Amino acid sequence: MLIITCPWCGARPETEFRYGGEAHIARPADPSALTDQEWADFLYNRTNPKGLHAERWRHIHGCGRYFNALRDTVSDFLVTTYKAGEPRPENSRPDVEGSGR
Amino acid sequence: MVESPSVITPLAAANPLTALAAVSRDIAAARLAALGDAARLAFRGREAAIGPAGEAFGVALPREACRFNAANGRFAFWLGPDEWLLLVPDAEPAPLFAAIEAATSGLPHSLVDVSARSVGIEVAGEKAAFVLNQGNPLDLSLGAFPVGMCTRTLFHKAEIVLVRHAPDVFHLDVWRSFAPYVWELLEDARRELA
Ligand SMILES: [Zn+2]
């Protein structure tokens, strides 16, 4: 089981959370001005990186808050979490071995 | 045609744990008790409404995550940064509701009477934390989960609000239709302690 650190509640078991997809995707301010391709990009196309991924999680069986996490998609290691609205952290990228966990 | 029963039982009057509690064994290391009725209010609000709501309730709403405040038999449990459960055992919700509504009138907030939504269970005894850990992976040592802490979490597959009132005394608030599920799994977890 993953241990995920909610920015409000601290370290909690994975079962208290729901995944919320890629983070930092802003809804276009004026959707009607977009081409179909641009709208499809907003709706469906994601970066799907091999490595660090900024993504939303919700502490649904805890404080109920959405927050963001940086997760390594290769190791499934959650590098850090931060509150919604905060910028993606500049990251020195600790790995599983260096984390002490 | 199937005739529907004509007897309507008021929800609040029927505790779903009455029958289970009546046949429950007394195990001193982890006693189980179905708690009585309580007034429960779900309060959500932004900064301006938080102070007045606490003043009207008589207990300041805690701003520290996962903590509760208590005074004169009233409890304010932090559930989220803008969400609290206000609980008063053995009380009518209506006067509390009216007082908080009056104090927060005109301020953006939400106040809902959820008194009949859930029921309370007490788990008490030196093995209380051990029993809870059969269905919940939180670290319940006193350092990690001190007296005065509360949180929404899971017991097996049911969402609960878990509260530590004393080193060996925990309260669970569980939605009423999940209550027998939680109760019987607690019974299962403490069976070996008899
Ligand atoms: Zn949380």
UniProtKB/TrEMBL annotation, chain A:
Tell me one Pfam family matched here. Answer: SoxD
Which superkingdom?
A: Bacteria
Give one GO molecular function term: sarcosine oxidase activity
Supply one GO BP term: tetrahydrofolate metabolic process
Q: Which Gene3D superfamilies match?
A: Folate-binding superfamily
- InterPro entries, from UniProt? SoxD, SoxD_sf
List the protein's name. Answer: Sarcosine oxidase subunit delta
Record gene name: soxD_1
TrEMBL record, chain B:
* Origin superkingdom: Bacteria
The scientific name of the source species is: Ancylobacter dichloromethanicus
Q: Name one Pfam family in it.
A: SoxG
Output this protein's name.
Sarcosine oxidase subunit gamma
Q: Where are the transmembrane segments?
A: none
